Amino acid sequence: MDQNALLLAAVPMAGLIAGFINTLAGSGSLITLPILILLGLPANVANGTNRVGVLLQNVVAVATFRRRGALETAGTWKLVVPSVVGALIGAALAVDLDEALLRRVIGALMLVMLAVMLFKPERWIAAHAHRREPRLLVEVPLFFAIGVYGGFIQAGVGIFLLAGLVLGAGFNLVGANAIKNVIVMAFTAAALVVFIVNDQVQWTFGLLLAVGQAAGAWLAAHLAVKRGAEFVRYVVIAIVVLSAVALFAGIGL
To answer: Using the 8-state DSSP alphabet, how is residue 172 labeled?
Structure first.
């Protein structure tokens, strides 16, 4: 098998791992984004290409929640609209950044997400969850800011959305998980348009990644793995550390 064939085989495998991780623990883009960069894509093209798989995965998730009657979308426009506007701005910022600077910014944000993952925010969020009345003045700027981050890099945005939905908007965890997918689907579609217009999507890798992520999500959902989630967390942490070091050092670039 030649080098090109190996690269093509590596992309859907990375997508499968990311889809599996996203279903069990989240932050799958912390796997796919650095792999795309280390496979030779410029950082901005990798950033755009990564959205193809994320979009397909969330389309499947939203369809599944809706089919099972677990998706309540009434009033969510006030969360979706500011997040989409923020994502357009975040994607535009990412498009315009210098390649070397973007690579280091991505590495730094990955280290931030590493700290977030070590903190295990899911437990803290669950402990502080309680219903409250909608607060437009809180929700609009909060989800705009989350959208800017999601449009810029995507990796780990689910953690911030979950926190915003539970602690800021007052959803319970079950409802927050469903709405999270709607918001990510909406702002990922918007950000992807920005990257497409700026010719920063490598479609072969993007579609292979999307197929892998869909397969990984399907596999994890059907296996219903429980004890593996903590193991997956530590695998992701290890990969994030190595990838961030490689991005800063320029290994393979």
So the answer is: -
